[in-house]
Amino acid sequence: MSEHFDLAVVGGGVLGLAHALAAARSGRRVVVFDREARANGASARMPGVVSVTGQPAGAAWRRARRSRDIWAEVAAKAAVRVEQEGLAIVARRPESAAVLQSFLATDMAEGCQFYPAEQARALFPEFKGEMTGVFWSPHELRVEARPAMAKIAAWLSEAHGVAFRWETAVTAIEGGRLVTSRGPVVAEATVVCAGDDFRTLYADRLAGQSLTRAKAHMLRVRYDDGFEAPGVVASDLSLPRLPGFADLPETEALLARLEAEQPEHLAHGVALVAAQSADGSLVVGASRAFDATPDPFQPQSVDDLILDELAAVVGKRPKQVLSRWTGTYAFSAERPVLLDAPAPNVRVALAASGAGASAAFALGEETIADLFG
Ligand SMILES: Cc1cc2nc3c(=O)[nH]c(=O)nc-3n(C[C@H](O)[C@H](O)[C@H](O)COP(=O)(O)OP(=O)(O)OC[C@H]3O[C@@H](n4cnc5c(N)ncnc54)[C@H](O)[C@@H]3O)c2cc1C
């Protein structure tokens, strides 16, 4: 006998959970399917930075703000610890300082500050590398991604009655009927949040969307003699990668200097993100390499580029690498967010960027409003 729901969500990553929350809050009976036993895709492998500053100007930035607010609310309700608040971008070069100072003139800079070197050294004594200043944004949150996914799913189940069907693959959506590896399920509507799996559901439609997959290296490290991060830490290499900064004219000069001085970092897509956990260890990343089928390897040479950049900011290299992992995520240079409607009662929601988790909860609200009116 088939079960009956108002909404089926395919995918138990952060996008799936966000859509489940928005639908459950509007009184719908929701079921979430995931082929894995728990979230184990990008949402469980990321450093868990919910970012605002650096997002593209306009609608995307407003979405990031809204999403961050829901993240904060969900974290409190689902007993997810917010490990860190705020983002410190260490400007290692005068060209970066110019970009960051120029950003302060935009309407996205509310609450942000740039501290020139002398002041920055006093305020952020943990950064012992060469620097021209530190930019501070108070808007970011950081959660420990893997446990956060499990806690949010448990809270959705307990507080909102969302049903979860783990280890269940959805192989087809036929009107209001889902074909799953454990039998059929009836749902009035379906949202597909399948992450970087573009080949199972609506593969034909997704094939025309310029999508690829990005592989990123991550490490967990520890400084023997301690290091206390003031917030999430980034550096010069992040600026050309974050559209909110990259779109400023000053970024051209920075990029030219980075191309001359750190070509290997650019070639491997390295942009520093370092986020501290409750036990003092740091989650550090990340590289970026594109391929339709990313290879499974994590070369030491690329990890070294990431650790070199951390050392340039902190002034020393961590002695202990506690673990290493790779993750993959959907990527589109043209369309960082995709909301497709392959049928009147079906939506495909895809975050095709390295910041998809940040936008997730606002996207969930938008899709559910679009689907149910
Ligand atoms: C290393 C790394 C660092 C990152 N850093 C950040 C960051 O700091 N901040 C940020 O905002 N973003 C970050 N990102 C990007 C972010 O993680 C992703 O954009 C986001 O997690 C995508 O969420 P998702 O739910 O769409 O995909 P996923 O988390 O991949 O979830 C998709 C789920 O769908 C399931 N699924 C797929 N097809 C089916 C099917 N047919 N039937 C059943 N189940 C199915 C999969 O098993 C999977 O669990 C990072 C990504 C990586 C890999």
TrEMBL record:
Superkingdom field: Bacteria
GO cellular component: cytoplasm
Pfam families: DAO
UniProt keywords, alphabetically: Flavoprotein, Oxidoreductase
Family annotation (InterPro entries): FAD-dep_OxRdtase, FAD-dependent_OxRdtase_HpnW, FAD/NAD-bd_sf
Cofactor(s) the protein requires to work: FAD
Molecular function terms from GO: oxidoreductase activity
SUPFAM superfamilies, A to Z: FAD/NAD(P)-binding domain
Transmembrane segments: none
Ranges where the FAD dependent oxidoreductase domain occurs: 6-367
Family from the record: Belongs to the DadA oxidoreductase family.
Protein name: FAD dependent oxidoreductase domain-containing protein
Native species: Methylopila turkensis
